Amino acid sequence: MKKYQEIHNFSYIISLEQLKREIEYEFNLVCSKGDLKQFPSKLNVLVAKKAGIKGTLKFQTANQIFMTCNVTAKLIQPCSLTLEPLVTNISKQILRTFTIESKKNMPTAKNTVELTEKSFDDDIIVDEINLGEVLMETISLETPDYPKRSGASLRLTPTSSTSPVNPFSILRKLKK
Predict the structure, then answer these.
(1) Which of 2, 47, 73, 142 could form a disulfide with 51 if both were Cys (CB 3.0 to 4.6 A apart)?
(2) Which domain holds residue 124?
(3) Would 165 be classed as within a structural domain?
(4) Residues with Cβ within 8 Å of residue 12, at least 6 apart in sequence
């Protein structure tokens, strides 16, 4: 297996023909520097230091591919309380099943989508798998929306020592 390969434009396509030639397809991919610079516009991060996906793809049956991989990323986000930079490390184990469907069996576009329990178990593909999409999807889901530095808290200080003004005090004056 090669040391690693770079993903460009969040796209790394593996064709079914390529998978059929090998018993187990191993991959070790990292985001290119250009892709890392695009993370701030796609996610709530200041900087992306690294992002990668490493694992295997293997045929289970004639029309099912099983993927086992680990997605890692190192992101710098603003703390939701103090806005100071905060390092977020992501490491997520992914187990996924891809079901192959032929183009003839693919239904035409529908206005409604039917979700069943099986809908969440596997992904349906036609002739390729984009590992870049798997990487971005996982990082998007695992990145905290409101990261908080440990021990950070809001310190609110009153602006004056007088008691708060009751908003209905004006109404009392009108009654008189």
Answers:
(1) 73
(2) 5-150
(3) no
(4) 5, 27, 29, 130, 131, 132
